[in-house]
Amino acid sequence: MTARILDGRSLADKMRAGLRVARASLGDRPVRLVSLEVGRSDEAQIYLRGQRRAAEDVRIELVEEHLSDDAALTTVVGRITQLNDDPSVAGILVQRPLPTHIEARDVQGAISRHKDVEGMNPSNMGAILYHEPALAPCTASAALRLIHASGIDLAGAEAVIVGHSEIVGKPIAMFLLHHLSTVTVCHVATRKLAEHTRRADVLVVAVGKAGLVTGAMVKPGAVVIDIGINRSPAGKVVGDVDQDSVGAVAGWLTPVPGGVGPVTVAMLMRNTLRAAGLDVAP
Ligand code: NAP
Fold it and tell me: pLDDT tens across 87-105, in order?
């Protein structure tokens, strides 16, 4: 491995230290984040574990609510409307995956944009076209923060994003455009993926396919951000990037686990404090 590691755990620790200081300015006033889970999934339990720990560390009260997996969209939206109207609630977080009869965007659109700590409400998403909004999508913000941590000058850099989902790929592309990178977005219909990825000074991979990107597809010295979360046949959590071969070529690389994940959770806490009215960096 020649690439330097972009250590998400230590970056998240530093971010939470800053958040604790900001949180202290509110004294004993509670900051409440409501997590709404529809049905039960192992995946959501894994996310919740990290969120609980981070919330406790920053003194955010994480309230976990559950609705049954056959809850109708109207029931879910009804509960969100009550939470929108409840002044004791700073932020609302809807755990994924949702049952198949519920569209994530219908739920996200129901959350008040002022409590939308995942930054997924159409109004917050739309604001990304103008600038990085106060409540920006957490994973995209985390990827940008890790890219900055490498020290790369983004102006004029070739940035390639693999994956164009609303939650990850598209917002990252816009953030990098704001920083004057030349941005290419690749997806399932992209021909000759490697020809694009090999040009990238900054390569962000957000697909959900283990081993999609190998060392032969990476420019020497590139900053590589691996967002994917997959299970290997042996049950290990792995990203979309083959860490061994890419680590031998890239200049900087995020590990999986321990890269984008912990910073995403720290961004969620940052957004919650912002929703509670604090002006917190970054
Ligand atoms: P998603 O909605 O399934 O999007 C995947 C994207 O990859 C789509 O844009 C898809 O294109 C594209 N794609 C599929 N196959 C491809 C291929 N062979 N070559 C190039 N592009 C391809 O997933 P997501 O929500 O963006 O998440 C992506 C990954 O990141 C998942 O593994 C997820 O678990 C992980 N994730 C991690 C975090 C974190 O905190 N670390 C947070 C969120 C997500 P089409 O739409 O054209 O098919």
Answer: 999 999 999 999 999 999 9
Burial per residue of 139-167, b for 16 or more beta-carbon CB atoms within 10 angstroms, e otherwise: bbbbbbbbbebbebebeebbbbbbbbbeb
Q: Whose CA is nearest to atom 2 of ligand 1?
A: 165
Q: Is the CB of 171 under 6 A from ligand 1?
A: no
Residue nearest atom 30 of ligand 1, based on CA coordinates? 228
Read off the pLDDT of residues 107-135 as tens digits, 9 standing for 90 and up. Answer: 999 999 999 999 999 999 999 999 888 89
Q: Which atom of ligand 1 is nearest to the CA of 142?
A: 40
CA 158 from centre of chain = 22
Mean pLDDT, rounded, for 8-12: 98
Q: Which atom of ligand 1 is nearest to the CA of 256?
A: 41
Residues 6+ away with beta carbon under 8 Å from 202: 147, 152, 154, 157, 158, 159, 160, 176, 181, 222, 223, 225
Distance 161 CA to ligand 1 centre (A): 11
The pLDDT of 177-181, averaged and rounded, is: 97
Q: What is the CA radius of gyration of the chain?
A: 19
Domains of the chain and CATH, by start: 28-118+262-275 (3.40.50.10860), 137-260 (3.40.50.720)
- Give residue 91's Cα distance to chain centre: 16
Q: Is 107 helix (H, G, I), strand (E, B) or coil?
A: helix
Q: How far is the CA of 238 from the centre of ligand 1 (A)?
A: 14
Q: Does residue 97 have a cis bond before it (omega within 30 degrees)?
A: yes
Structure tokens at 190: 């992209």
**pTM for the predicted model, two decimal places:** 0.97
Residue 131: predicted pLDDT = 85
The packing angle between helices 138-149 and 169-178, to 10°, is 50
What whole-number percentage of the chain has pLDDT above 90? Answer: 94
